[in-house]
Amino acid sequence: MVPSLVLGHSVGEIVAACVAGVMTMEAGMQLATDRGRLMQSLPKGVGEMWATRCDGESVMSAIATLGLEESVSVAAVNGPKSVVVSGDGKGVAAVLGHLKAKGQQLSVSHAFHSPLMKPIAEEFRAVVQSVELSANKVPLASTVTGALATAKDLTDPEHWVRQLWSPVLYSSALKAAFGYRGNDGSESWVISSVLEVGSDPVLSRMARPWIKTIEEGSVEWHASLDRRTGLHEHSVVQ
């Protein structure tokens, strides 16, 4: 079975790229392994990640207003009011304080998707440049660009290097996926069924409340596993 379109959150985009034919599964596994190794080589305890119910633009504006662009960034925009802030601990606290926003600290070893990842950029660039990258055979909605990726995007090593510190634009990528119009030669179609592959359908649960406000008709959501039940999950959102 070949998916109509693929999307991956953060390092999941490497998996999506493998499915789309951008790189072999072996190359993708090596890329993900080296990415993780380099991240773990950075000093521990100097960064934090906090989830907060704010919009991405407000958080980015606060970071700019406080002049913290070199130490703090938006790590992920998971929905209209679901943002992760990442970077220097004091800086993240200053941003949340400026916004008068509450947050929940994530249990992570490092401040991923923040400027604190930049020291490993050169070494990771060399790793990516050793991987053979090909044009995608399956459409891919990128969480790096927040749009449907082009073959130029996916075969450019800088695209993968930017993943280290760029925000994960999950909500924008998902909107791009639902806005995709395919054609099987006889009629056009839209995406109406989503399968989340992983140990728990966290991303699907985050998306359902706001996707149903912008998407006409019903969307079927499936999950390969659900930690709450240990079973395959299936639901339809009208």
- Give me the number of helical elements: 9
How many strand units? 12
Radius of gyration: 18 Å
Helix content: 25-40%
Q: List the secondary-structure elements in sequence, H or E.
A: EHHEHEEHEHEEHHHEEEHEE
Query: Could you give a short account of the major beta sheet?
Result: 4 strands, antiparallel
Report mean pLDDT, rounded to a whole number: 89
Structural class: alpha+beta
Instruction: Extract low-pLDDT stretches.
Output: 233-238
Approximate shape = globular
Q: What is the beta-strand fraction? A: 15-25%
Distance between the termini: 26 Å
Lateral strand order in the biggest sheet = 3-4-2-5
Describe the structure in your own words:
This protein has 238 residues and is an alpha+beta fold. It contains 9 helices and 12 strands. Helix 1 runs antiparallel to helix 2 (25-40) and helix 3 crosses helix 4 (89-99). The longest helix has 16 residues, at 25-40. Mean pLDDT is 89; it is low at 233-238.
In short:
This protein has 238 residues and is α+β, with helices and mostly antiparallel strands. It is built from 9 helices and 12 strands. Strand 3 and strand 4 form a beta hairpin.
